[in-house]
Each structure stands twice: as C-alpha cells, then as structure tokens.
Amino acid sequence: MKKHELKVEKRVVFGKKLNNLRKQGIVPANIYGTDFKSTSVSVNYKDFVKAYKIAKETAVLYLDLDKTEIPVLIKSLQKHPVNDSLLHVDFRKIDLSKKVVTDVPVKTTGVSEAVTQKGGVLLLQSESLTVEALPSDIPQEIMIDISILKEIGGEIKVSDLAKSQKFEYKTPQEKVVVSVVAHKEESITPDTTVAAPEVLTEAAPAEGEVAEGEASAVPGKDDAKATAPAKAAKDGAKAEAPASKK
C-alpha cells in the first residue's frame, strides 16, 4: 500500500490572525492523541486537499513535522457555514500497532428489484458505520449490495453484512443500514380546513339566580318578589282575624 505523506509546520498564529493565514492558502490544524502532547500546526491548502482525496478519514496519513514522522488519521474538518471553505483540520495521532475505533463511510452497489420493479424508495439510514481495526486494516469504505432487497419493506442490518477478519463492527448489530419503503403520493389538494375559534364563556346563572357581584337587570323587581309573600301573609292574617267586639 502506498504511503501517504503530508508536510506540516508548527503554528504560532492564533485567534483572529488565522484569517490572514487562510488568505495565504494555509490551513490551521491541530494534532492530538493518546500520550501525545497536542500540537498546533499549519498545512498548505492545496497539499491537504490532494492528500484528503486519497486518505479521507480512513487511511493512515504520515505527517512530516520538523523531519519527524507522525502517523495520523484525519479526524474532522471544520468548514465555513456559508461558502464551505476549509477553516480547520484535526489530526488524530495513532499507534500503528494498536487497534483504533473509527467511522467508515457506507456506499451501496447493485440494483434492487423492490425499487426498479415495485416502485419502492431506497433509504440509506446510516452514512457510516463504526469499526475497530489496526490502522492499516481500516477499510476505505463499506460496500453494501442492495440487490438482495426484492420486496418493499426489506432491510439490511449490520448483522446481515459480511464479516471480516481484519476489522470488527462496533455499530449495534440490529442497526438498520439500508431499507426499502413504499412510495407515498403527496396530496396536491391543499388542506383549507380552518379550525373553529374557541369561544370562552362563563357559565350562565340558573333561572331566577343573579350572577355573583351583579345587580338585578330590573331595579326593584327582585325586591318586589321578596316582599310579595310577606304582603300576602299579612292580608291573610287580616282576613282570619275575629271581628272586634262592639
């Protein structure tokens, strides 16, 4: 296997001054790892792009720092949110004699009958899988043959993938990587249903009652009702009273 090399230099520029460095075609970077002192470095943009196209995040890259060779994996890239320009790179220093855990991209191959003949939709549910291997045995990509998917609803899990003696899957075995689902037609009729506005009302008082804190709607009406029984009782008493003696 060809050895991938990349020259880097120690960096003494930080903060806002890094923008000037980037304008010169230099990318700030950092090297870190177990039992390794984190080191700030810089790398030529064009040289890095060439190396990245070959190594990606899975192949060992040998950094040349002051004539010292440091084996690393490209761990992460930080890009500008608007113009997608490269802002920063993280290199992970590794021990070539020890296994490492890293993510490997997933790619599909073949043709699925469930898609071409039965109108299903292919879903790649995981763009990468986590594996453990010696740095030199990390696969560049994991190819998945989708020709075994012949029915809608079919799926390929990690447990269905071919095993390798060079690396071990650390992603859970039950994880679905690829599946085929039924195609759903989107409704072209807009939903114009408008929910009725909610009307908040207070409970009406029972017939003959007056809401608390409110006066009677007709002044004096309730008073008349209240005195009527007393007047009737008084009139009845007068009718039953015995005639006075002459």
Summarize the structure in words.
A hairpin with a 6-residue loop joins β5 (68-79) and β6 (86-93). The longest helix is centred in the C-terminal third of the chain and has 20 residues, at 221-240. Among the domains are: 4-95, Ribosomal Protein L25, Chain P; 102-181, Ribosomal protein L25, C-terminal domain (RNA Polymerase Alpha Subunit, Chain A, domain 2, Beta Complex). The chain is α+β, with helices and mostly antiparallel strands and 246 residues long. The strands form three sheets. Strands 1-3-2-6-5-4 form a six-stranded mixed β-barrel. A four-stranded mixed β-sheet has the order 10-7-9-12, with no helix packed on it. A three-stranded antiparallel β-sheet has the order 8-13-11, with no helix packed on it. The chain contains four helices and 13 strands. It has helices at residues 18-23, 45-55, 113-116, 221-240; strands spanning 4-10, 26-33, 36-44, 61-65, 68-79, 86-93, 100-109, 121-124, 128-133, 142-145, 155-157, 167-169, 176-181.
